[in-house]
Amino acid sequence: MADISLLQEDSQEELDGFGVDDYSSESDVIIIPSALDFVSQDEMLTPLGRLDKYVTSENIFNRQMVARSLLDTLKAVSEDERDCIAVLERVGRLADDSEPTVRAELMEQVHHIAIFCQENRPSIPFAFSKYLLPIVVRYLADQNNQVRKTSQTALLELLEQELIERGDVETQVCPVLVDLTAPDSNDDVKTEAMAIICKMAPMVGKDITERLFLPRFCEMCCDCRMFHVRKVCAANFGEICSVVGGEATEELLLPRFFQLCSDNVWGVRKACAECFMSVSSATSQEIRRTKLSSLFISLISDPSRWVRQAAFQSLGQFISTFASPNSVGQYFKDGEEGKEFDTPSCTNGNHQEGCPQQDVSIHNTQGEVGVLCRTETGIAPSTDTESPDLSVPLSISSPEPAEESSAQPPDRVPEQELYNSFHFWRTPIAQIDLDMELLPQEEPASCVSVQAKASTPALGRKQLEELIENLEPHIDDPDVKAQVDVLTAALRAATLDSHLEDAFLEARETCPRRLTCFPCVCQSRSSSLRMHHSDDSDQGDCFGQAEEKKSKLQDVIPQALLDQYLSMTDPSRAQTVDMEIAKHCAYSLPGVAMTLGRQNWHCLRDTYETLASDMQWKVRRTLAFSIHELALILGDQLTAADLVPIFNSFLKDLDEVRVGVLKHLYDFLKLLHPETRRKYLYQLQEFLVTDNSRNWRFRSELAEQLVLLLELYSGQDVYDYLRPLAFSLCTDRVSSVRWTSYKLVSEMIRKLASCQALLTDFLSELVEKFCHSPKWSGRQAFAFVCQLAIEDDCVSLEQFSEHLLAPLLQLASDPVANVRVLLAKTISQSLLEREYFLHSANSHQEALEQTLVALQMDLDKDVKYFASVHPGSTRISEDAMSTTSSTY
């Protein structure tokens, strides 16, 4: 270390002692002599002496250097426990330094010092806990932003690597963080401390989080003065829920989450939408269905476009939480494209269309199979012969999210749920003037062409919503359904007049020429309508839409959520929400399909076809990367009917789309019927043609997939269709492609080994095209294929000796040294080292030894080296050596 003050004090003396001509500049005169003197003085000091000298230096640079070299000083005195403690005691002086850069530099070294103290704990007991941890915690409230940031980073690193004792975390760290989030704390410090608490929660576990952090976290969610604090709480809400568990989430956290979702700052609501999946995963199916669904709908209909965008991006993930947690092991994993899903097969082993991919059956202890039915509380075994009531009410909130979301806390039972079919037949239905019931038959009743305002009393939007909400629990009754549809139309008109978005009403189908259409009314009166209005074209349109809506019905998730998900392919969504909303829809489609099960694939079929034909290649690319996962979910019958045509279209798409299919070619083809799979043998050669010839990774991926495809086809198919591809890839211009293809050829040898005729023809062509190739790269390829075939036991001893050994040994006289180098490796490291020819005929053994001796006498030093390094060299006879010497 250098003290600049000393250099400056000596500058005048040095100028007096040297002439101007002796040095080119004044800086030379000052630095060189004083630095040498300084080094000689430092060498006489002990490590503690140097530390004491510069820790109080007036020069900031010196104090920075002291902080930076603390670890080196500790290592220098590590053998003496008292000296180590003395070094750590002097750290307190640096901690009180007035210069922020010195304090920040000290925090940069804390992590490394902690590791040193842990490794030397017998000699430095509790040193870190006593001397350094208090400094780290104190700096969390430092006035300087840089010091606070470095201390926060240091604290999180220490916690991640478990360098802080659990007792110290509870007694030293947590209380300080809780105090920093007090109402009277500095705004920036409070926000940063809350962020640390949220990040610490998964590290410290449920017990500490519930006892020390959870009360303050709930309080900060309601901080009226600092929206930054509320935003931090909203962004990390899911992590806190996952740590504390379902009971604490539903009792304490959900009311705060409802408040955050209706916050007056759009950034807070956006953060809630982004973590919705994690929050939902910590709740029960009943809460998820009855409360979180309506809350999520309010986010989808939020006035802010950014909130709506985040909500639609999280919609597929939220839907996936409705899957049964007992039998569906799905998980979202960020990767290059799309998400991966752990998809279990049907329990009973069947893969028929009627068998859902999940929740198919359960086996009790007696081995009996019980049918699973979905209830409001989740999945339960059912032994009843009658179909269970799968209609679950979903109360959908108003488009105005602020007051109504928080007006009814989640722990209260809604008024309409106090009545059920067990106690009462149904809730009394309000008297509503239904003009459509009195329509003359001349009018096109199929579409009920009445204005919404004229067909219902002059009720306000609030009253209409209350009526609909009271009727929702009994929506299965056709009469009640008809009344709800009338009220829905009136509510739509009122909403349009006030220029407000209506989230769940967008899912209702509308007639192309009318204001609205009521599918349930159309269905209940279908026979009479067909009789009286058979020639009405509007009627036909309405019936078609009714049937289409019926085809989208299911009972796994709330229908409103599915309707919103299906609307993500609507072009208007791209203009009003997100230009890439279709890509997000495609990204989460496998998760939604798994949740619904293959029995409800009809709900997603049209949406998948729309995405597959989207003009944006990124959308099609996303589907291409996940089509094999979807095929695993749907089973072979649905895959052949609905996915194979789309798969074929992807094969002819842009390279950006084709690569998604190519990367999972084996995974998709193995799910197909053998006859369908065999048809793709004719199309594999199309992968050799790319939009850009420089895209060598495309061909390398093809070679890797062909290695996997060998097990799906017969030896004759491999010889007829895959052999030309393999030989073509072996001559690729890019070496990486060629080396992968050599592995492919060796595996083909293994595949054809069971058929002598095919193997003979294959090896003969291999010798002709590569061993006798005019290009040295071809001859080198032959040697490498032989090496792989030997090391991986792809061919028997007799077959190798008969077809490959003689051509291989001929390469000993190859004019290119690289070919002879690989031959020497093959003989010494593969043949002799594995004693491949230990029991072979004497003629082969003799020829092998003579070739090796010739390579040992090669003019190229690399050839000589690889030919000499092998365990079997001592077995080479002197006769072979002399014979070979005379030959060469």
UniProtKB/TrEMBL annotation:
InterPro entries: ARM-like, ARM-type_fold, HEAT, HEAT_type_2, PP2A_Regulatory_Subunit_A. Residues 393-410 have a biased composition (Low complexity). The keyword Repeat applies. Gene3D superfamilies: Leucine-rich Repeat Variant (1.25.10.10). One of its GO terms (cellular component) is cytoplasm. One of its GO terms (molecular function) is protein phosphatase regulator activity. Residues 334-358, 379-413 are annotated as: Disordered. Pfam families: HEAT. HEAT repeats lie at residues 173-212, 253-291. The keyword Endoplasmic reticulum does not apply. Keywords: Phosphoprotein, Repeat. Serine/threonine-protein phosphatase 4 (PP4) occurs in different assemblies of the catalytic and one or more regulatory subunits. Component of the PP4 complex PPP4C-PPP4R1. Interacts with HDAC3. Regulatory subunit of serine/threonine-protein phosphatase 4. May play a role in regulation of cell division in renal glomeruli. The PPP4C-PPP4R1 PP4 complex may play a role in dephosphorylation and regulation of HDAC3. Plays a role in the inhibition of TNF-induced NF-kappa-B activation by regulating the dephosphorylation of TRAF2. This is Serine/threonine-protein phosphatase 4 regulatory subunit 1. It comes from Esox lucius (Northern pike).
